[in-house]
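Feature request, filed as a ticket because there's no other form

It would be nice if the structure record came with a short human-readable summary line next to the tokens. Right now we just get the raw output. Example of a typical job, pasted below so the devs can see what we mean:
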Amino acid sequence: MISPVSPTLAEVNAGAAKLQGVKVYALDLTTSPIPSYSRRDFYKICLVTGESRIHYADRGIELDGTYLIFANPHIPYSTELLSDRQTGYACLFTEAFVKGAERSEPLQQSPLFKVGGTPVFKLSETQAVHLTSVFQQMLAEQSTEYVFKDDLIRTYIFLLIHEALRMQPAGSFVQHKNASSRITTLFLDLLERLFPIDNPHQTLPLTTAQDFADQLAIHVNHLNKAVKEVTGRPTTAHIAERVVSEAKALLHHTDWDLLAIASSLGFKYPTYFTNFFKKHTGSSPLAFRKAG
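Raw output as currently delivered:
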């Protein structure tokens, strides 16, 4: 059973309204289906105990024991539970929340931002006890009325990052036998995470095959070969198809002008967007909007 590490649906629903850039919760996962946490802009630090396998594109790592795990919202991954139960803690936070600190430079050097790194750290018994107490303090602090609790939780997050920076990555990545299938699945997942575009100030951060390959930490030729092998279509065709689909939705369901739509979809000039849209639909954006 492969599923993202996430809280139960009840926990997500209960906490979503109160979420202000950070949320800490206890984990108690089983091999039953687990709903994914849909926020695309959250980073995640987890402390988990159990047996599992984490998949990143064409690479995977086996976990057995207690681990500290960092997850980047721009790099898709999946977790396969190999034991009946996995317990621990997790902290979700936005980059904006962490940047609220005056000195946030260490975050830029952390496993959270390291493309192609191994953000999984095996803990000794002593380390596990220490970091468990940090998560428990964050969990307790989250429900207090202390006026500076955000600053305190940020301090705990930086403490976790610094503890990880002092450790060596755990284990070595192993190659998946079905690498092409896994790469394609994670590429399509990463593509879908970019949508929908919610406001005209939001811009697609990834628009080319090279952008996606960089996020997946693989060579662009490797990505293109895998996607073509599995789907029969090139990477660029999937990207273009999804951008066209989003463009149609924005033209039909928003009153944004052409400049705003073009910019949000990653086009430098409206004329570039118009030519792209017409190439793939046979109609200009304005004609499509009027016809709708």
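Something like this underneath would help us a lot:
Residues 235-253 form the longest helix (19 residues).
Confidence is low (pLDDT under 50) at residues 1-19, 32-39.
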